[in-house]
Amino acid sequence: MSNARALRSIHFPSSMAERDIARRRLAYEECLYLQLALRLRNDGGLVDVVPYAHTAGEHLAALKQALPFSLSDEQEAAFQDILRDMCDGGRVMNRLLLGDVGTGKTAVAASAQACVMAPTGVLARQYADKTGPLLSQAGMSWALLTGATPASERDRIHAQLESGELDVLFGTHAVLSDDVTFKHLSLVVIDEQHRFGVGQRNALRAKGPGADLLVMTATPIPRTLALSVYGDLDTSIIRHRPV
Is 216 helix (H, G, I), strand (E, B) or coil? Predict the structure, then answer.
């Protein structure tokens, strides 16, 4: 049904069947325009941006070996989704990792970390306490940056980020500060992504043009579901807690 006929039929249908066809036509058009707009917005922000093509090497193997347990089938499937996206040099990763509390999202994200932004200092420290020792075992350096970080330590972290000496940074909104600069920010991980605004997410990504993005949430609010359904984010889901 054409758009003009659908507009007439939705107001003055000759039958209930015609009304249903008109409604379907208009609903389809609305969904199509929304999907195209999201795709254009996503691709438009990546014009002249060269995606990173990551390489899975010895650090990743060492990190998986350092884990005190084996990944579940769902965790491994999510990990492979992320790894495939990150090793693809033709596109920038935009992926949502969705799973309830206790399903092991952190263990999956640990294999794909460069800058991890959490909404609170407590959560950021939990990430550092849980994941930091595993990164150290795998031969990678890391640091924690929050609003409570002492000035002297903050200056040291800034210098390590600028020189590329630091491999992984855990932090809060503090990482968005103008004085936090990265030599090569190739991956951004955002936990509880619905607690950050789109502007904040984009501000962090702007510190590393072409950086891959992994967002995580245990709260599938309607906006998050809409973003995944309409193409702004690819989705990996962990439905069950590991044994």
Answer: strand
